[in-house]
Design goal:
Elements: H1 2-19, H2 49-61, H3 68-78, H4 83-101, H5 107-118, E1 134-136, E2 149-151, H6 152-163, E3 167-170, H7 177-188, H8 197-220, H9 235-248, E4 253-257, H10 263-269, H11 275-280, E5 290-293, E6 302-308, E7 313-319, H12 329-343, E8 352-359, H13 360-365, H14 367-373, E9 386-392, H15 401-404, E10 421-425, H16 429-446, E11 450-455, H17 473-481, H18 485-496, H19 501-524, H20 551-561, H21 573-587, E12 590-591, H22 593-606, E13 610-615, E14 630-631, E15 639-640, E16 653-657, H23 663-674, E17 679-684, H24 695-703, H25 705-709, E18 716-720, H26 735-740, H27 756-763, E19 767-769, H28 774-786, E20 793-797, E21 809-810, E22 823-824, H29 829-832, E23 839-843, H30 847-858, E24 864-869, E25 871-873, H31 877-886, E26 891-899, H32 905-915, E27 921-926, H33 937-951
Parallel strand pairs: 4-7, 4-8, 8-9, 9-11, 10-11, 13-16, 13-17, 17-18, 18-20, 19-20, 23-24, 23-26, 26-27
Antiparallel strand pairs: 1-2, 3-10, 6-7, 12-21, 14-15, 19-25, 22-24
Helix pairs in contact: 1-6, 2-4, 8-18, 8-19, 9-16, 12-23, 14-23, 20-21, 20-22, 22-28, 23-24
GO molecular function, one term: metal ion binding
GO cellular component, one term: oxoglutarate dehydrogenase complex
Main location: mitochondrion
Amino acid sequence: MSQLRSLAGALRSSSQWMRGQVGSGRRVFDPRRNCSSGAAEPSLAACSSSYVVEMYYAWLEDHKNVHESWDAYFRNAQASSSEETGEKHLSALLQGRAMSQTPAMNSSLKNENLLKLNSLSGSYGLEESDLDKSFQLPLTTFIGGNESTLPLREIIHRLETSYCGHTGVEFMFINNMEQCQWIRQKFETPGIMMFSDREKRTLLARLVRSTRFEDFLARKWSSEKRFGLEGCEVLIPALKMIIDKSSEAGIESVIMGMPHRGRLNVLANVVRKDLDQIFCQFDPKLEAADEGSGDVKYHLGMYHERINRETDKNITLSLMANPSHLEAVDPVVQGKTKAEQFYGGDTEGRRVMSILMHGDAAFAGQGVVYETFHLSELPSYTTHGTIHVVVNNQIGFTTDPRMARSSPYPTDVARVVNAPIFHVNADDPEAVMYVCKVAAEWRNTFNKDVVIDLVCYRRFGHNEMDEPMFTQPLMYKQIRKQEHVLKKYADKLISEGVVTLQEFEVCVSLYGNLITVSLCKHLFHSCCFPDFFKLDGEPKSMSCPSTGLNEEVLRHIGEVASSVPLKDFAIHSGLSRILRGRADMVAKRTVDWALAEYVAFGSLLKDGIHVRLSGQDVERGTFSHRHHVLHDQEVDKRFCIPMNHLWPNQALYTVCNSSLSEYGVLGFELGFAMASPNALVCWEAQFGDFQNTAQCIIDQFISAGQAKWVRHNGIVLLLPHGMEGMGPEHSSARPERFLQMSKDDPDRYPEFTGDFEVQQLYDCNWIVVNCSTPANYFHVLRRQILLPFRKPLIIFTPKSLLRLPEARSSFDEMITGTKFLRIIPDGGPASNHPEKVKRVIFCTGKVYYELAKERKQLKLEEDVAIVRLEQISPFPFDLIKAEVEKYSNAELIWCQEEHKNMGYYDYIRPHFLTVRSKNPIWYVGRDPAAAPATGNKFTHLAELKRFLDTAFNLEAFKGRSY
């Protein structure tokens, strides 16, 4: 009977691992489910035997898992007066009604029931005497190896070996028989998990490096935070096994992302950063200038090309820098991986792949993990399979799993994309190595994501200064009794005769000597800046050529934008009108916003510059203005991208609608932009204020990325912005936030010896613009590539201006010799007699057209000048100074449509004071408010009229003191 219980237990354990139910928390069974009578009272006759068996074993785990009536029944059965009676009760439970109805079962029926058992259906009519009988194995199992029949006792043993050891497999939710059978074969085939003596010695040597590295840092810098790997030292040999097997399959480049725990160890023993450079980061005499802006050592990244000693093949390893925002790096890694695959022509991910490491609490708790998983199989975002390694500490900072997630496992989020999940005890190094080997083979075979859950512990607190006993006393009492995995594995190999004690001690000593030499090297040599991928060099020049184009090029792109390159392609009638409108503009030598963008992109493609535009609904455009992808109205899934038909040898234009994600997709595009400086990578928010759900990427990677990690990045953010009466969630792209994070000093007038514009751009952390004309939008996109360096570009794009007749530009503003205008001076009557001008209104963006219309109606063209600030940051001191001096007798007004506590005023005001300290610049606009815009159309129009009246009331500010 005990053997049968073992069989049912093994099968049930197998079932639960496969279905993700082990450790899933309490599961209360409905006493009426699967019961024909519908009665709540327990009755074997009324319930299916398989359901009773399932309830019984659930009850063995926790009596509260079943209804109280069944709890009482099982207690009575267990408390029977004699062992013999108890055995009968248990036998009845296992055999159900079939036992009471059939006194004896023939071997054929028993074999059939065994197959049901093997397919996780329960136990039917099997007795102790059947243990030594042979049974036919089903075709779906691999436990027989080359055998088609096995004794029941051996079946039990092999099932226990496969599913009741240190490895658990979740895969039965995958709706693909081939993939499920592939996994079964990897875990059920007898003897498949064996390792050679050489492989065991390699594993031991890698464990020595991992463990001794942490030991040394703990002794040498005991009071320093380092977020060590103690408790999961097996991560290092695990990663190396994944890389070895991937290299063997043809992978040439691996891009990795991880949180801070274990980063220094990964840098040292996986990426192979020089130890003396790591020790340098602990130097208390290290000046901030030697370390960029001084980001902490466990955030930094690394790029290294080396030979993989297991395969003798070249391999490139990149570890992405990551802030303390744990999972924020996930989509960035995926974007860079995709870009490397794209530029290398690796259409199936056979040469470039990604590995992502996670903590258990962050993997379950942070939404960007889910967003990244849902990018994994989208055509324009897939990296053809990522290997995820979860360092499962079984705790967050101080938070237990029961408080940190609602799912049974931290890895359950991966089930949304049918990724197999391999749970493994991290104190069994050989089990870990086997799982890593299978994961690498899965990725190479199916090009799909896979998850390795390293069930481990954190030997110390959240960091080395933390005291975990405050919050998890019992857990840490147990942890302190845990023998180190290196000692356990070394003792195992010594007992097996794989290595001798002396060989092990020599291995430990050799790595100790390497550390000592590296420490001495650090002490006698100056520190250099830590590597992060390929460091950018200085620009070859500090000038920017004209961004204008030959008119023939302008016209050619405009004509293609107005046509359908494919024959027999049926387009929507409304789209036909749009294309005719474009053709009419080209004939008149004008462009609107959409055509200006089209020409900018197309001209870059001509020069071999890849252009990628990504975001929600970007193919058509949120405001139905772009239409870069044409859809055949008669043939499903037939589409055309005219921009890829401009030139015979042009670069590829990629335009792709994204998932409904900002955080994940912006991170992805940032990573994509990292891969090549010769690409224009744009992300467009559906509405500008939606960027606030990607704030982490903007704050940590885009605004501060260059300062922290010495990497230039030319990503472009297109953020629709403007007060149109559409309510608080569709109005403001929050320009005040971008300007607050701009690093130019408002109190110091910059002095440059060369090109003021380019020098200023080189010194800034990003560029913030709000273009008021299509031509200037065209120029700023081209300037982004023609600059001799890369900076992030934030563009507040319009909504109503997309179709405003006044917001059009002539070819004359875009031809050879023209360039981006950082400001657009007043070109009307006021500029002809500047000494007579009473007021100069400075503004930016859409509000210019409302001001110009109001000025014309009031006939104040000679009294009021309007100057447009197109590039807001870095602030164009030189041009603003010239305008202020030109209108020396006028008072200065800053007019914006945003509320006073938002928009640009707080940024603009101190900059103007630096230009002309004797006079203020007065504010005109909406009053301070909590919400960025009203949702009431009447209120919106009333606010607009109020500040327009104020802007042109020439008496309003007289007599006011500053």
